[in-house]
């Protein structure tokens, strides 16, 4: 990659294009496949510098861009996968280079309660009972499972040995966006530990950049 950020300015993209086009120019590079690579780089530069084409690709992907070009009378793009094309410039719109996902399982404290509209308060339950065809009445009953209005102890919690909360595991998918900085947070709203009478807070995962063994590789910019 060229080490340019996804939001690189036109001058940066142009500079990167010149560098790569010189590297793969058929007159200078006699390796097999250099001509095809040169054509891909030229096409990538065309899309990256055309606001309409870039916007179409961002919204609708490769197929959408091909259809757009066909409607414009330009014909469909005859190049390989877009991920490979755009990777020449450190851009990957919709592909593996834009980041990655990580599956994470984490312990989480949750209230030993479940929703129950019949609960009207601590130990009080109100339900509708039919007394005759077409006639119903509210019947108030004692139910120690009712904790508060609309909430009842969970059946599998029983005596709740850990108090009013119990620990469970939750599965989360963490999107690691391309170019994330060391120490940047990925936030999941409202999935932190629950506490009775309080709204659950946010759960934050902090991205840590792990040094490579023997420091062979070093980060340079945000192209990955």
What can you see in these coordinates?
The chain is α+β, with helices and mostly antiparallel strands and 224 residues long. The chain folds into three domains: 10-94, no CATH class; 98-109 and 167-224, HSP40/DNAj peptide-binding domain; 113-153, no CATH class. Helices cover 25% and strands 28% of the residues. It is built from four helices and ten strands; from the N terminus they run ααααββββββββββ. The N and C termini lie close together (9 Å).
Write the layout of secondary structure elements.
Layout: H1 10-24, H2 34-48, H3 51-71, H4 82-87, E1 99-111, E2 113-115, E3 119-121, E4 124-132, E5 135-142, E6 146-148, E7 151-153, E8 165-177, E9 185-188, E10 203-206
Antiparallel strand pairs: 1-8, 2-7, 3-4, 4-5, 6-7, 9-10
Helix pairs in contact: 1-2
Key features of this structure:
elongated; 3 domains; alpha+beta; 4 helices; HSP40/DNAj peptide-binding domain; 224 residues
Strand content: 25-35%
Shape: elongated
Radius of gyration: 29 Å
Task: Give the ordered list of helices and strands.
Answer: HHHHEEEEEEEEEE
Low-confidence stretches: 76-88, 90-98
Question: CA-to-CA gap between the ends?
Answer: 9 Å
Quaternary structure annotation = single chain
What is the residue-averaged pLDDT?
69
The description of the largest β-sheet is: 3 strands, antiparallel
| Strand order of the biggest β-sheet | 2-7-6
Portion in helices: 25-40%
Number of H/I helices: 4
DSSP summary, beta strand count: 10
* Class based on secondary structure composition and strand pairing: alpha+beta
Q: How many domains is the backbone divided into? A: 3
């Amino acid at each position: 990659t060229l080490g340019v950020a996804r939001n690189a300015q036109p001058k940066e993209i142009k500079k990167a294009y010149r560098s790569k086009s010189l590297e793969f120019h058929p007159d200078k590079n006699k390796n097999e496949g250099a001509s095809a690579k040169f054509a891909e780089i030229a096409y990538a530069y065309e899309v990256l510098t055309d606001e309409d084409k870039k916007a179409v690709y961002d919204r609708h992907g490769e197929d959408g861009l091909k259809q757009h070009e066909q409607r414009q009378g330009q014909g469909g793009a005859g190049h390989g996968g877009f991920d490979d094309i755009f990777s020449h410039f450190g851009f990957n719109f919709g592909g593996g280079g834009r980041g990655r996902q990580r599956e994470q399982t984490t312990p989480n404290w949750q209230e030993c309660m479940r929703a129950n509209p019949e609960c009207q308060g601590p130990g009080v339950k109100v339900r509708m009972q039919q007394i005759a065809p077409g006639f119903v009445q509210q019947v108030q009953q004692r139910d120690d499972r009712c904790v508060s209005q609309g909430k009842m102890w969970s059946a599998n919690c029983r005596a709740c040995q850990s108090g009013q909360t119990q620990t469970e595991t939750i599965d989360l998918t963490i999107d690691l966006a391309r170019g994330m900085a060391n120490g940047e947070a990925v936030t999941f709203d409202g999935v932190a530990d629950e506490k009775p009478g309080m709204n659950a807070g946010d759960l934050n995962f902090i991205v840590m950049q792990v040094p490579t063994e023997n420091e062979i590789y070093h980060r340079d910019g945000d192209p990955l």
